[in-house]
Amino acid sequence: MTQQTTLTKPTPRVARPAAASAAPTAASPSAAATPTPLTISLSVAGLVTVLLGAFLPMLDFFIVNVALPTIDRDLGAGPAVLELVAAGYGIAFAVLLVLGGRLGDTFGRKRLFIAGAGAFAVTSLLCGIAPTAWTLVAARAAQGASAALLLPQVLATITAIGHGPQRARALSIYGAVGGISVVIGQVLGGMLVAADLFGSGWRAVFLLNVPFALLTMVLAYFFVPETRSPQAARVDLPGTVLLTATLLSLLVPLMEGRAMGWPLWSWLLLGASPFLGAAFLLTERRIEQRSEQTSDGRMPLVPLTLLRIPEMRRGLGIALPYFTGFGGFMFVVAVMLQQGLRLGPVAAGWALVPMAVGYFSASLSGPRLISRFGSRVITVGAVVQGLGLAALVATVLADWAHFSALRMLPGVALAGIGQGLIGTPLFRVVLSKVPVARAGVGSGVLATTQQSSLALGVATLGTLFVSLAPTLGMAHALALVLTIQLTGSAAVFILSRRLPRTIG
Questions:
Q1: How far apart are CA 359 and CA 248, in angstroms?
Q2: pLDDT for position 73
Q3: What are the start-end ranges of the H helices in 374-438?
Q4: Taking Cα atoms as reference points, which of 240, 275, 271, 239 lies closest to residue 254?
């Protein structure tokens, strides 16, 4: 598959071959007056490379779930620190994604992609050799930051270079990769922990990233073309600080409050989060209005005009309940399988294989279904996911004493199919009308919504399940959480009906 588009750049003093970078270069006003077309393409190798770059950080969001008990035994982490091992990655990942997208727009997406892959390799190595629990927490936070540098460049590159059916197909594949990586993460994590390669135990979960991240760097150097926004903008420091503070004040207490006994600071942070969010929106609106009146090169971190695009606004509205439910489901099921059914890491991972098969099958058929039925594929996906969740609730409540991975197979398979039908077209919807010049920030906004919602699902549904299981019992706590996720499927169904029928 080859994707082509025509970009413009200032006419250089010396002619350069067509294979040169697509990134605009600094030039004098006279040089910039006569743009010259430049055709660049993303080859099959280039697409595989950027998708590998997306797969690795999304895989690591959940691959650690099944390794947490082993990490606890090895490092003596304790509940609060153990949750930080999982949460530190997700929080750093979520809060820096928009900034990562903006940096790619400004300095070049290929350059930031390679830097992010290199940083991901180094931080994964640090996780793998961490001697103490707190060292692992710090390394996981750094790993999340490097992932935030890497991931936005994937969507931005596809959006900036692709066009028409080729771009739509690439975004569909990205959506499939995003969902399947979450499921594979828990399956692969269990297998690696049980295999105990060279006596590495849980460390193999992180060390496996290193050669693949280095390979991604090399492939990107040769096969991924350079793109960037034609108008470089200065980093929006106030917006960056306020967005980071907003997400931290929301996610940190939700993910750490229960393990630490809900101290006063957790409630204060939660109370401050809506005010920080409002301050962020007001700041971004003021900066964007000022940039329209002056030419000082300052642009908001998140241009609120992007949210005036119906496809982006409505698509993000669907992404919030979808990814929140997805993240909570994967965490809760991992805990239930290991603590409720007493399965080992390998058996717990294999119990989710039907979900992975369902998701992958739906993703493969997604592009064909989308071309025929448009956004109604998301609507049908919400119904199928809801049926899968309802089947799981009925199975859990009917006979918990004999509940097993085999009995949950129909429910998780249906849920996987539904999630694939939702996730595959969702990325196409959100980014379909984003201008090429804002590909990085648009991708960063989508990725931030995705990762923040996944983390929010773990923090809210996961915390609720772990808190209620001792009093209500594992079966009723699980049924309650699945029912809450079922309401999320209903929200996706209702919101998807407002989407344009045709997806670009």
A1: 31
A2: 85
A3: 376-398, 409-431
A4: 271
Q: Which residue has the tokens 């760097």?
A: 217
In degrees rounded to 5, what are phi and psi of residue 443? -65, -40
pLDDT grade for 426, boundaries at 50, 70 and 90: confident
- pLDDT, residue 36, reads 33
Query: What is the pLDDT, as a whole number, of residue 391?
Result: 95
pTM beyond 0.70, yes or no: yes
Residue 18 reports pLDDT greater than 70: no
Concatenate the DSSP letters of all residues of 229-253 into one string. Answer: -SS--B--HHHHHHHHHHHHHHHHH
Contact partners, residue 361, CB within 8 Å, separation at least 6: 417, 420
DSSP string, 455-479: HHHIIIIIHHHHHHHHHH-HHHHHH
Buried/exposed 402-429: b ≥16 CB within 10 Å, e otherwise: ebebeebbebbbbbbbbbbbbbbbbbbb
DSSP letters spanning 104-120: HHHH-HHHHHHHHHHHH
Q: Residues 113-140: pLDDT tens digits?
A: 999 999 999 999 999 999 999 999 999 9
The label of the residue with tokens 């990586």 reads: 181
Mean pLDDT (the chain) is 82
Report how far residue 25's alpha carbon sits from residue 116's, in angstroms, rounded to the nearest whole number: 22
Q: Specify whether the CB–CB gap between 457 and 255 falls below 8 A.
A: no
